[in-house]
């Protein structure tokens, strides 16, 4: 049994580390507070993030800044239609030793990193996209019958362009379900755009400190397991997921009308994991209802499928998620 005073002290240390990292990354990334927060929460929760936004909004710079502040190994993969799985995970090549004997040697691909930017992931073929499935779920790579473990923590930040769909392959539901969050990256405001252009003109360089490392992140993840989640909060997260299913008693009228299939059980797990990180980031050792609601859109929107009527109406799934959140009571008998 964890001592409450000790747990509260751990929560305050987590809050200090989280805020320091968020502040440091914010010195490089102009605006995009929601995107920065979601990326940090996913890293500490052990999840992955899918960013949807037009090019040029600083997604690459975000991952680079995270890699410097967190002192993690960073790699970037530009997904293209001709990219093959071996280009990502690596391949076995034949080599010879000093005695002239031939043997196979595994040459690691760029996926052997800690922070991986999968740029325009939907431009690669389904076969190549599937090469990420094992790594995103198990943090390992299997090739030639040998399992290679990736160095923890392992985090994938994938991007896709919501406008240009020429020559793209939509991500299958099984892969979308591996992402803890899907975040829609908004365009910059007038002030933010002026700040970006000013930094470009002045060529202002910002040195970022190394605040954490992989070992410290893994320690912080262990703290998450100690955060208190009451039965009522767990049930609320489960009911919120059930509310996305059209045949559920908790579904709203529009969900029943426009949704073909709702979120998976991973969504309920994701709501709790994200809520625990947010609670600790605010210095609390217990989860509140607002913690679960805070990331409901990011956790649920990519796990819900519109039916034909919903597609014809061109509905925004995030609006349906917000309806579920507003209509669902916190406690039920």
Radius of gyration: 21 Å
What is the average of the pLDDT values?
86
Question: How would you write the strand order of the largest sheet?
Answer: 2-5-8-1-9
The count of DSSP E runs of length 2 or more, i.e. the number of strands, is: 11
User: How far apart are the first and last residues' alpha carbons, in Å?
Assistant: 29 Å
How would you name the CATH homologous superfamily of the largest domain? P-loop containing nucleotide triphosphate hydrolases
Low-confidence stretches: none
Basic shape: globular
Largest sheet: 5 strands, parallel
Please report the number of helical segments: 16
How many domains, as an integer? 2
**The CATH top-level class label of the largest domain:** Alpha Beta
Oligomer: single chain
What structural category characterises the helix and strand content?
alpha/beta
At the fold tier of CATH, the topology name of the largest domain is: Rossmann fold
What this model shows, in words?
By secondary structure, the protein is α/β, with parallel strands linked by helices. It has 2 domains: 1-226, P-loop containing nucleotide triphosphate hydrolases (Rossmann fold, 3-Layer(aba) Sandwich), CATH 3.40.50.300; 227-328, Helicase, Ruva Protein, domain 3 (Orthogonal Bundle). It has 16 helices and 11 strands. The protein has helices at residues 4-26, 33-45, 59-69, 85-89, 126-129, 133-138, 173-176, 190-202, 214-224, 231-242, 253-258, 265-281, 289-294, 296-300, 308-312, 317-327; strands spanning 49-52, 74-78, 90-96, 102-108, 115-119, 140-143, 146-149, 155-160, 181-184, 259-261, 305-306. Strand 3 and strand 4 (102-108) form a beta hairpin. Helix 1 (4-26) packs across helix 2 (33-45), helix 2 crosses helix 12 (265-281) and helix 10 crosses helix 12. The longest helix has 23 residues, at 4-26. The mean pLDDT is 86.
